[in-house]
Amino acid sequence: MAIHRPVAPFPGDAETLRRHLAGAEVPALLMTLAHLTGDTSLLRDDLRAPGWLFAPQGGLSEERQAEIRERAVQVLLRLGDRAPGTPPGPPDRELLRTITTWAMGDGTEDLLPLLAEEIVRPGQDPRAPDWTLDELGPGRDFHVAVIGAGFSGLLAGHRLAQAGIPFVIYDKNPDVGGTWLENTYPGCRTDVASHLYNYSFAPKADWPDHFCTQDVVLDYLRTFAKQAGLTDHLRLGTEVTALRWDETAARWHLTLRGPEGTRTAGHHAVISAVGQLNRPLLPDLPGRDTFAGPAFHSAAWDHSVDLTGRRVAVVGTGASAYQIVPEIAGTASEVTVFMRNPPWLRPTPHYRRPMPAGARWLCEHLPYYDRWYRFWLLAPGLRGILEGWIVDPGHPPTERAVSALNEELRSSLLASMAAQLPDDPELLDAVTPGYPVGAKRVLRDDGRWLATLQRDDVRLVTAPIDRVTPAGLTAGGVAHDADVLVYATGFQASRFLTPMTVTGRDGADLHTGWRGDPRAYLGITVPGFPNLFCLYGPNTNLVGQGGSIVYFSECAVTHVLGVLRMLLAGGHRSAEVRPETHDAYNRWVDAGNRQRAWGWSAVGGWYNANGRSATNWPYSAQEYWRRTRTADPADYVLRRP
Ligand code: NAP
C-alpha cells in the first residue's frame, strides 16, 4: 500500500493565503512556486547569501521574507484562477536541475536521480519494489524474519509486504517504536528536523514542532504500523537470542524467547533491524552497586521515582543528558552534572519551538510544498557536511582543529557559546571542548543548556569520578551527595547485533569473526552469513545534520530488496557478499574515517570506541544512496539449490 494523504484543492482567497504563508519556510516556498509555475525567474541569485543552506529561512531578513510571501500570494492567486485543483506533475529534469542548483549553489546534475525520488506526486513511492515474489518465483516458499520493530524494522516489513514476501517482525518489547519506545526520559526529542524524520513515502504534515518530542515520534510509528497493515506480522515480546544458518535447508533457525517460552523458528532470510544505540552502557565505576537510592540509565527511565525536591546526579553530557538536565532542573532541588568531555554546540534557535501555524496547512494544501520543504532540510546533508570534519595533514591537525575550516567552525561555535556566558569566563572555560569540532556528536543549541548550567541549583563537576558511594559520587576526592543517580552514559554502539549469537556457514560465529571490530558491506552483509542483512549496521551512522538515519534505512532496505530480487529471480537459495567486495569496501570506508575529525581525535566517544570507527559513515548521504540503490550480481555469490 502507499501511505499518503490526498492533496487538497488549490488554496483559496488572498487572506487565507496570507495567513498561512506566514508559516512558510521562504526558500521552500520559492522552489514550490517555481515548480508550480515553471517560472524560474522567481529564484533570484541575490536572495542567496553564503551559508544560506544552513540557516532557518536561508538567513533572509524579515523584510525580504515578507516581500517574497506577498509575491507568493499574487502568484498563487493567478495560478489558482488559471488551473484550479490541478497541480502539475513532478518537475522535469531541467526544472529539477535549475531549482536545486539554485538552492544548493552548485551543480546538481549528479544528484538528479536521487532528487527525482524526492520530488514526487503525493502518494508516489518510487523506492517501492516494482516486483513481487509471485512474479519472480511463483509458488516459491520463501519467508523472512525481521528483528526489531523500530524505524528500520517497520520499514523493512512494509517493503517486504509490497513485494508480497511473507514475513514476521520480532521485537523484544511489548510495542513497536524501538528506541522511541524505550527512551522516555524527560525532554526526549529528535535532533533531526521532524519533516526529515519520517519515511519519504509517508510524510507527516502536522509535526507540531521543528524537532519533535518522543511521544509524537512514537505515535507516528504506531500509526504507520497500523496503516501499513503490519500489525498482524508483529511478534512482540519476543526476543531473538540466537541465529543459526542451516546450509542444507538454506534457512536461518532463530531461537526465540517469548510469551510461549523458548522456541525456534525457521526463515529463509533474516533482516536485523536492532539499531546501534540500543543496549545501554553503564560506566564501570567502582562501587556502582552501592548507591543507596534509585539509580537508572537514561534509556530505562524510572518514572516511578519522583524527582521533586530531590538531589539528582547526572553522569554524562552527551545528547541524552543535554536534553534531560534542563528539563529536570527546577523540579529537583539540586542537579549535579558530571562532565568528562563537553559537547560542541551548534546554534539552533528554533530547536524547541513549535512549527508555525501555517506550516501544516501548507503541507496539506499547497501541492509539493512539503516535498520542497523536505528537500530544503535534506540539502545540506546530501553531500554531507564533510569539508568541516576532513583532516588536512597540511594544517597540521591538532586536538584543537583538524583543518583551517575546522578551526573556523571552532571559532564560530565558541563565539556563540561565549556570547551566552559574558560574565562567566570560568564556566566558558569548563564547557569549551578540548577536541576538534565533529570528533563527537555536535548538539543543537537554543541557549537552554548553558542557561541551565548557570542556575544556582545546578552544579557542574569536571573532576573525574572516583567512585560511587551509598551517598552519591566522589570526584577528584570531593563527595557529591545525591538522592537519585542518572546514568546518561550512552550505548554499546559498536557491539552490533549483541547479545544475539549469530552462527553462519560452516559454524562461523559472527562476533568471533569480528573480534570486537564489526564490519559489513554497505553496513548490510557479511561474507559467510548468507541471506542475513543488517539495517543501521556497521559504518552507517551519518554525521552531518542534514540527512537522517531514516533516510539511510530507506537506502539500505532498497539494497536488501535488490538482493532478494536477484536471489528470487534467479531461483537461487542464498546470496552472500563476496569477501573481496566486502574487504575492498571496508578499506575504502576505513580510509575515509581515518581522515575525519572523529578518526583522528583521541576523543571519539561512541563515534570511535575502539580506535577504528565501526559506527560512522565518512562520506556523503548521496554516496550511500548511490552505492545502495542497486544490487550488483558481481558482488554476491548466488547459490542454486
Ligand atoms: P553519549 O553521546 O555516548 O554520551 C555519553 C556521555 O556519558 C558522554 O558525555 C560521556 O563522556 C559520558 N560518560 C560515559 N562514561 C562516563 C564516565 N565513566 N564518567 C563520566 N562521564 C562518562 O550518549 P547519549 O547522550 O545517550 O547519546 C548517544 C547517541 O544517541 C547520540 O549521539 C545520538 O546519536 C543519540 N541520541 C539522540 C538524541 C536526539 O536528540 N535525537 C537524544 C539522545 C541520544 P565522554 O564524552 O567523555 O565520553
TrEMBL record:
Keywords: FAD, Flavoprotein, Monooxygenase, Oxidoreductase. The lineage of its organism: Bacteria, Bacillati, Actinomycetota, Actinomycetes, Kitasatosporales. The keyword Flavoprotein applies. InterPro entries: FAD-bind_Monooxygenase_sf, FAD/NAD-bd_sf, Flavin_mOase-like. Its EC number is 1.14.13.84. GO terms for molecular function: 4-hydroxyacetophenone monooxygenase activity; flavin adenine dinucleotide binding; N,N-dimethylaniline monooxygenase activity; NADP binding. Belongs to the FAD-binding monooxygenase family. PANTHER family: FAD_NAD(P)-BINDING DOMAIN-CONTAINING PROTEIN-RELATED, L-ORNITHINE N(5)-MONOOXYGENASE-RELATED. This is 4-hydroxyacetophenone monooxygenase. The gene is hapE_2.
